[in-house]
Amino acid sequence: MSSSTTRIRPKNAAIVGLGWWGQHILRQMIGSDIVRIVYAVGSREEHRAHADNFDVAFTTDFSRVLGDVSIDFVILATPHAQHGRQIEAVARAGKHVFCEKPVGLSVGEVSKSLEACRVAGVRFGVGHERRFEPAVEELRRLLVDGSLGTIMHVEASFNHDKLRGIAGDNWRVSAQGEIPLAMTATGIHLTDLFLDLVGPIETVTAFPATCMSNTGYADTLSVHFGFASKATGYLNTVLATPFYSRLAIFGSEGWAEVRDSAHPDEAGASTLTVQSRTGSPSVAKLSSRDSVRANLERFALSIEGKASYPFTEEQILDNIAVMSAVSRSIAAGRSVLIAEVLSRPQK
């Protein structure tokens, strides 16, 4: 996506949070003619060097970017527990908000965040970049045109070892209570895809395991799902094994499977295999795309009304409800209805 096809004034953005993922976002947005990151907020002065590497102004004062009239939107790449109050602060300042996942740790918190944006009249974006991967977009096309028939089952795995050995007092573990790291780090990306491709989830049954961690948190998670459509689903995520990523959907007229060769923060092709009821399977190699950049650029274009943004408030809230249901299922040792978490009757 470039200004050669859609001419807009580049949107000025500030990024808050300069850890691993914040630095990755800065790196991926270099040269964008749609989003220009002009300010970075770090939690301590030592982070200035990261901003200097990308020739971006730096501050440790969050309020400074909120008061800067030249900034159109703020990217939050901060610890999960900070998201709620930061989203509300950005919205009150009249700036659009793009928040990394999970956007909050409870349905109540995220409901308030969405309401704050609604009242302020600002747009809300979320860092689920996997929707923008070429193979996922092609899979979505197959579902929309009915090539796979009635969808009966979906399953996915998203495994890597980038967080192997993370300390138990790291914010990714300690700030989220009973929600397993395997859910907030990777599983939540898969449930976002499930909600997008298959539809609302009604039931969740979670099975965590602590296999390699010496700090007690679950590094392995399996979850079974029941969908409103009566389809079933399954996800598995392991945080202590080499990269492996797979998404498969099974329908009455065929199935399709996506396998990725590299983590989303690296370049690598994906393979899409489609098997219909007759004939041999078709296999296509799809080149990688910078999905992080695609997500942020689409968000910026949506601010201008130049493109639609493919996340609904209901999907964003439902994904947090699914995450919360995973936590409840683990604590109670039983299946949990999403309606219990959302406090709304089943349809």
Structure description:
With 347 residues, the protein is of the alpha/beta class. It has two domains: 118 residues, Rossmann fold, CATH 3.40.50; 213 residues, 2-Layer Sandwich (Dihydrodipicolinate Reductase, domain 2), CATH 3.30.360. 33% of the residues lie in helices and 26% in strands. Helix 4 packs parallel to helix 5, helix 5 packs antiparallel against helix 10 and helix 8 crosses helix 10. The longest helix has 20 residues. One of its GO terms (molecular function) is nucleotide binding. InterPro entries: Gfo/Idh/MocA-like_OxRdtase_N (IPR000683), Gfo/Idh/MocA_Oxidoreductases (IPR051450), GFO_IDH_MocA-like_dom (IPR055170), NAD(P)-bd_dom_sf (IPR036291). Pfam families: GFO_IDH_MocA, GFO_IDH_MocA_C3.
Helix content: 25-40%
Q: What is the CA-atom radius of gyration, in angstroms?
A: 20 Å
Q: Report the biggest beta sheet as strand number plus sense, adding barrel if it closes.
A: 9 strands, mixed
The tally of domains stands at 2
How far apart lie the N and C ends? Answer: 39 Å
Give the CATH level 1 class of the largest domain.
Answer: Alpha Beta
Note the total helix count. 11
CATH topology of the largest domain: Dihydrodipicolinate Reductase, domain 2
Strand content: 25-35%
Side-by-side strand order of the widest sheet = 14-13-12-11-7-10-9-8-15
Bulk shape: globular
- Encode the helix/strand succession as letters: EHEHEHEHEHEHEHHEEEEEEEHHEH
Give the uncertain stretches in residue-range form.
1-5
Q: Overall mean pLDDT score? A: 92
